[in-house]
Design brief:
alpha/beta; eight-stranded mixed β-sheet; elongated; proline biosynthesis
């Protein structure tokens, strides 16, 4: 079995460990690094997976999954560079960081795969996009797709699209949470108790998402089915259009794309 080390056991790192275990991976084939001893003890108790330091992870693992925050990548690469073997697969879950950053800092020929997951990974419903670096072979991509498939769906995209993917699906859950929050507030404004408004909106969101995923019907068609002539829905849609909600959403996603690209440029060298 492939030995996997998750470097950085935050929410995404923990979710991946949990998903791999649920998919049948043995705890003996997994390990993680984490800077806080209390967190290490908590995760080891919860999952039976051992915590190690970075040198031990590099020595033992066939796959290194980098799940630290982008601003923490430089010191980690300093630790990895003198220790990583060129045949070790490095999988980056770091938003905005290109494969060429890892390839520049790690030994020549190191295969790197860039992944953009999202937070529904914690419930096994992630949307992850994968892209291979210069030295990543088809079998490397297939292995990463298998690993990420244990915590949701996976698509393969050119790396040139990863900043856009980050803006769409990486940050995407936050947009839905924001919309649900606003709709609950609207329910309260209309006199509905908060708990009832939350139940109404959340179940409506779950039902709508299921129809989108499982029905094979375009969202425009689904929206039109709810929009009767001179009815309540068309009046609401008119207000959304009048306030430029569609344009604002598009601009927001463009801003997220630009920030993802900026994170990558912060690590460029002349």
């Amino acid at each position: 079995m492939t030995t996997i080390a998750v470097l950085g056991a935050g929410k995404i790192g923990e979710a991946l460990l949990s998903g791999l275990l649920k998919a049948g991976r043995s705890p003996d084939d997994l390990m993680f690094t984490e800077r806080y001893p209390e967190r290490c003890a908590e995760l080891t108790k919860r999952y039976g997976v051992r915590s190690v330091d970075v040198p031990a992870a590099v020595k033992a693992a066939d796959v290194l999954v980098v799940a630290v925050k982008p601003q923490d990548i430089e010191p980690l690469l300093d630790e990895l560079a003198p220790r990583v073997e060129p045949d070790t697969l490095v999988v980056s879950l770091c938003a905005g960081l290109p494969t060429k950053l890892f390839e520049r800092r790690l030994p020549e020929g190191t295969p790197v795969v860039r992944v953009m997951p999202n937070t529904p990974m914690v419930i096994g419903e992630a949307m992850s996009a994968v892209s291979g670096g210069r030295h990543a072979e088809p079998h490397h991509l297939a292995l990463v797709e298998e690993l990420l498939g244990s915590v949701g769906r996976v698509v393969r995209v050119p790396e040139s699209q990863q900043d856009a993917v980050t803006a769409l699906s990486g940050s995407g859950p936050a947009y839905f949470f924001y919309l649900v929050e606003a709709m609950i507030d609207a329910g309260i404004l209309l006199g509905i108790p908060r708990a009832v408004a939350a139940d109404l909106i959340i179940q409506s969101a779950v039902g709508a998402a299921t129809m989108l995923r499982d029905g094979g019907v375009h969202p425009v068609t689904l929206r039109e089915a709810v929009t009767s002539p001179a009815g309540t829905t068309i009046m609401a849609i008119r207000e959304l259009e009048r306030h430029g909600v569609r344009a604002a959403l598009i601009e927001a996603i463009e801003a997220a794309r630009d920030r993802s690209a900026e994170l990558g440029r912060a690590h460029e060298v002349d």
